[in-house]
Amino acid sequence: MTHEIRALTHAYITAFDSRDIEGIAALMHEQFVLTDPENVALGPRANVLEFISDLFDRAGNSLSFQSQTVLVDGTYSAIEFDLTIGNDSFEGIDLIEWKDGRMVSMRAHLTQRT
């Protein structure tokens, strides 16, 4: 299971960095919930995809999502990443819960670099 979740996590990283909303959608459970600095708990999947799509539209080609570390433990994966949008740089961690090969939740933590 660890290898499968690691591969799914890398698929998410690739989809997000390439702004592939369909690829991201395919990895999300229908009842997916996102918790991040802008959202207390956003769900289900359709609402999260709209939020991410709006982010991609605002960022255009200036978005870069690069993983530094991927950790897997049971049904969870964690991504330590660098995110750049235009002139703004962030570092963060996504904690993802997986079930039946799909993401059921993500808790995103971001810190803006100065």
UniProtKB/TrEMBL annotation:
Transmembrane segments: none annotated. It comes from the Bacteria. It holds the Pfam family SnoaL_2. Residues 11-105 form the SnoaL-like domain. This is Nuclear transport factor 2 family protein. It comes from Qipengyuania aquimaris. The lineage of its organism: Bacteria, Pseudomonadati, Pseudomonadota, Alphaproteobacteria, Sphingomonadales.
